[in-house]
Design a protein that fits this description.
The protein is of the alpha+beta class. The protein has 1 helix and 8 strands, in the order H-E-E-E-E-E-E-E-E. A hairpin with a 2-residue loop joins strand 4 and strand 5. Keywords: Signal.
Amino acid sequence: MRKVLAAAALAGSLAVTGLAVAAPAAQASTATATATQATRFNDWGKYYSSNHKAYTYGKTWKQNGKVYTKWYGKEFSPKHGYVWFKYYSNGSWHQFYREWNGSYNETWAKGGIKYLDTWTCWGGKFKYCGPKHRIYPF
């Protein structure tokens, strides 16, 4: 009986010690999870032009109040590929494009973006354009 009581007392003291050690570890893992959630990534693409001769893909994330987009473009012909970005900010829509030949990548960022769409064209800014895709919010 004494052995059972001694084992129970020892287990109780270990459990109390274990809780004391586990509490800071639990707090640290919660802080890490919160920091990780602050920078979520959205992988997007491959988004093709309508004739499948060009495509784009990339990542979008929000950090410190700005929306960042890193994109890659691929096309294999003498003509050029075009990626369009259309975003809603400060109560209105804005859009711009980037042209490339062969392979290309770029990163851009802007604050105040509420929505961000993209699509890919090939052979001209408005030629063989694929469908529009929402890449932010995700």
